[in-house]
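Appendix B, record 7
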Amino acid sequence: MARSDVNRSGEIEVFVRVVEAGSFSAAARALRMTPSAVSKLIARLEARLGARLVNRSTRKLQLTPEGSAFYDSGLRILADMAAAEREAAAGAAPRGRLRVNTYVPFGVHRLIPLLPRFLERYPEISIELVLTDSIIDLMAERADVAIRAGPLGESRLVARKLGQSPIVVVAAPSYLKTRGTPLRPAALDSHNRLGFGFVRHVDGWSFVDAAGNPLMVPIIGNTLVSDGEAMRLMTLAGAGISRLARWHVAADIAAGRLVPLLEDFNPGDEEATHAVYVGQGRHLPARVRAFLDFLAETVRL
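Structure tokens (predicted):
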């Protein structure tokens, strides 16, 4: 007979968090526990099961075959428990704190203007909003949804595409008046190209030459910024030339505050925006499902 003092669901949740976070310390931060408490709990779980679940090293954790099978089973068990709780609370309105982490341009120009409508529609939900272009760990940051632009890396997370936008090279009229307008990609060698202070998926600007062959121009300039909105503002101020999603600068182009450049050499690249989250389908918390559906309904890029 099973011991009545064993919190099996708690053990499973901690083990799943350890696997997804990649370390005891990261899981401990997400669960608001100490690393030693997490380590002891996993050791007790292994002793009770009579099987080693993870091989520990100073650099990373590696699942054993038994650990991998237990992880898959644990995910199903936690999902079934969540579904049972939702069924018990059927008919209740989405509620609780929703933690959202978004890249800065999307947060400033798309999400924040829409949030009053969302909160009016779901008055029992509260929002905790963080704006950053840095890549985050959802588990460590305790975020329910992260909204990011660009290619997605491999992970156990689920992504929902919100839209995509062409990329455009732009500069302010004041900059072009002083430095001249580049007519070919090679002419960018004599111009200030604004860059980001974090690692990008592609280290350069993509163009095609007159024959349609791909061409990459390195990003060389005197300014690095932390996010896309800072890049837009520096470009508007006449600091240099930048490459941004067209939706982000469409209003500036329409108003004449920014000028598109080298359009004949644009390869047609597009940047996608995704909402990334843990879980899927009917296993999503109601507040997360409501938010994702709202984004799909209202966001236009």
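Remarks on this record: The radius of gyration is 24 Å. The chain has three domains: 8-88, 96-161+272-298, 165-269.
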